[in-house]
Design brief:
The complex is a heterodimer of chains A (169) and B (156). Helices cover 72% and strands 4% of the residues of chain A. Chain A is mainly α. In chain A, strands 1-2 form a two-stranded antiparallel ribbon. The chains are: A mainly alpha (169), B mainly alpha (156).
Chain lengths: 169, 156
Amino acid sequence: MDLPQKFDENEWFILVSLLIGFLIIWRLPKRFPTIISVLLALFISAVSKIVDHILSGSMKIDFYDFNDSNASEIFDLLLQWFLYPVIGYLLIYWYEYSREKGKNRLLLIVFIIILSTLYEALSVKFGVFYFKGWISYFSLGFYSFAFPLTLVYYHFLNKWYQNRSFARQ
Amino acid sequence: MNFNIYLFSLLNIFVFILSKQIWKSLTPLVRMGCYLLSVIFIYDWVSIAGNSANIMELPVDWNVSILFIVNRLVLLPLTVVLFLELFLQRQNKSTQIVTWLVGVAVVACLDYSNSWLEIIHYQHWNITRALFLWLCFSIFFYGGYRFFGYLEKKGS
């Protein structure tokens, strides 16, 4: 596991994003049971690892690179282990909060997909990703699939959690 | 090469069906947690072995690459969870230890069979090291299983 070749804006972007993300999670009232939060984080981390493995050069396709080099470095792991799950958790949290307030689900999903794409575009500006044939419209397409998939998974987790609660009563 | 693809495809289907049949002890939440833990471990291991440590030469051919991904999404993690399930269904300590050791051996052989059947190529890596890696993972994995069980019982 390599250290960054140069500690510059991409590393700072990851660290500052993580810090802000953790601060927001810490300040927010608890909405999900711990097991659901942990399983959500693991799912987002696993999906991101698989997708990054496929798209970033492990197969014949090489659409993008991360951070300073092709080799696996510590900030790649920070990105996949912590930053993606933190952002994903916050988006699911916000979706659930707004849905309970009676907001339109479809509009919320569209807005979250656009927001995810914009955040990714910002991370490209800071050198977290280097696109090599990938464009932000592809990300829009990817998030249009990934966010609803995460929501479906979240609903399954909730269902299993409820069943487990009934079984114990 | 076609033989390898058929063999691994059949193995994937077999493990998938078998894991559905044997599922008794684990609750859906704990099972999902254990499955994701294995997937993440396997992908991190591939990433470190393939990119940083240069001990694994990843496949370049499309069919083989897809098979390699499916092996790491279905075959290996489901086999790990399957052996955990078998381990939990054993009644006494001695059969549990036998199941644990057989599980480690089977998963290490399944992992290393990617190299035997020329899906990937290992350098400076052998079956003994693979056995040791999966033995260490099995201990970490059991800890993960206990952790998910604790979180599920704890509730919110």
